[in-house]
Amino acid sequence: MQFYFELASTSKIGSNKNENTFDRGAPTLDRSLFLLSKGLIVQNRGMRLTRWLWWTPSIVILGAASPTEQVDFGKDIRPILAQKCVPCHSEGGSGPFALQTFAQARKRGDLIRLVSLTGQMPPTDARSDLVSLTPHQPLIGTELRTIQEWFRLGMPEGAKTKPLPTPEKRKPFVSDHVVVAQVGKGQAIPSEGRSATVVYPINSLSGQVGYLGYFSFQPDAPKAVRQVVLAVQRPGQQPPFTQTGLRPGTSYAVWSDGFNPWQSGSGYISVEKEDRLWLRVIAVPTGKPEPASGLMTFGREYRSDKVQTKTMGNDTFVVEAEKIVTLRDEWVLDQDIDLISILPEARFVTDQVRFIAKSGTGEKLVAMVHTWDATWPGAYNFAKPLRLRKGTSLIYEASVPNTKHGHAAEDEKSQTLRFGPRSTDELFSCHINYIPR
Ligand code: HEC
User: Fold this and answer.
1) How far away, in angstroms, is 256 Cα from ligand 1 center?
2) CATH code of the domain containing 191
């Protein structure tokens, strides 16, 4: 089944038309929360949540909800946790505590309300006008109001409920079409820092994959590892990862914490005998050294089309100190394509990335990461391949507020910002997996 998108509508970006992610009933609340969360997240860069708990009173005022029925845990809160929190907040997951029972949720009620209203959780808030994205879905207006109302009522339990089940570990299924391997033995995540990148080759597996259509990872350090990108080095090419990210045009597949496995849907990435596979692990140091290793699952795909990669963005931008700019790149399609996934790369000054499809008849948001967080980098897999017609313009944009508030280092004054390898430099690229049609 495929999702066909005709650019026939004239709706504008930002008009909150997406029924999946915005609640149309509450534009005012959404808007206030939007502004509030932006403000707080900029303030919050590099700070612990506890440092801004005193913001709480202003949040309470926003929570003026008017539900018709009394909110309780079993009926209202539990389903939200099941869908949007338990993928990580469960036994063995990346979240620092489980949110599977009434007692666990009640104990953290205040924090749950706070991280929800400020847009801090779920951690990457990506939205699309066109097709659902497989990463964590943001909370919508009605859910935010429900959480707030539950808190206001003193967190009632309602009918007794069973603990929410721990999500099934994606056990490798064994068949002719799957290769499972333990990789990265001896590779370590440093114990300190804001975010850490570990890159290593997987020598043992090169040549065994054939046609890669599925990729998943089970980290040995689930609390630390947030994203794993698999990339293919072709003969005669340089290694695929540089200090500034993935080399343009490189074939990749990606796994992220709490996401579904990477699945091309209707295509495959070819991995030939002479090719070499590499992994890039993005992790958050936990205070002690952790392994960057894990169990990797490749699915082989035999009957489909070849996935290609297009890289957008550029490495020549300059953003003057104290300037707020939008970086932009455009790709006009010279044939029909099916979009499979996108992997934006940006660091700490960028605060939002957008990916827009534009034709003579209108614009649609293909994907937007509303509050970019470089410690939660996103690779966005579309739930279904998204067909875009020849002549459509794909626009990749990043908002870069190069002011002292937006700046990673929290300097007195911001510096001129350029593309580069240091954490205080920026990146502006996006790698797009697609199938030509
Ligand atoms: C993709 C995984 C993931 C999802 C989904 C997720 N969380 Fe979290 N959560 C984490 C991790 C990891 C942390 C630890 C802090 C960090 O690294 O950002 C965390 C931290 C928290 C904290 C503590 C914040 C602090 O700074 O002390 C709360 C409360 C929380 N999450 C609630 C939620 C709620 C409520 C949801 C659902 C609406 C949710 N989380 C969804 C992974 C997740």
Assistant:
1) 15
2) 2.60.120.230
Q: Sort residue 154 into left (φ over 0), alpha (ψ -120 to 50) or beta.
A: left
Instruction: Specify the residue for token string 């100190």.
Output: 321
Q: Which domain holds residue 81?
A: 14-124+135-152
In a domain, residue 427? The reply is: yes
Q: Quote the mean pLDDT of the chain.
A: 80
The C-alpha atoms of residue 189 and residue 212 are separated, in whole angstroms, by 27
| Placement of tokens 């295509």 in the chain | 267
Distance CA 284, CA 195 (A): 5
Of the pLDDT bands very low, low, confident and very high (cuts 50, 70, 90), residue 15 is very low
CA of 219 from ligand 1 middle (Å) equals 18
Domain count, the chain: 3
Pocket test for ligand 1, best of 40, 113, 115 (most atoms within 8 A of CB): 115
For the chain, the residue count is: 437
Give the strand pairing for 290-291 and 196-202: unpaired
Supply the pTM of this predicted model: 0.79
Residues 215 and 313 placed together within one structural domain of the fold: no
For residue 88, CA distances in Å to 115, 169, 404, 421 come to 15, 11, 33, 30
Q: Is 422 exposed, middle or buried (0-12, 13-18, 19+ CB in 10 A)?
A: exposed
pLDDT tens-digit profile of 225-267? 999 999 999 999 999 999 899 999 999 998 888 776 777 767 8
Instruction: Tell me the pLDDT band of 68, cut-offs 50, 70 and 90.
Output: low
CA distances from 48 to 52, 106, 324 (A): 8, 22, 25
318 and 417 Cβ atoms separated by less than 8 Å: yes
Element (H, E) at 9: none
What is the atom index within ligand 1 of the atom nearest the CA of 114?
Answer: 29
Residue pointed to by tokens 């009605």: 142
Query: Which of 41, 44, 88, 189 has most ligand 1 atoms within 8 Å of its beta carbon, as the pocket-test mutant?
Result: 88
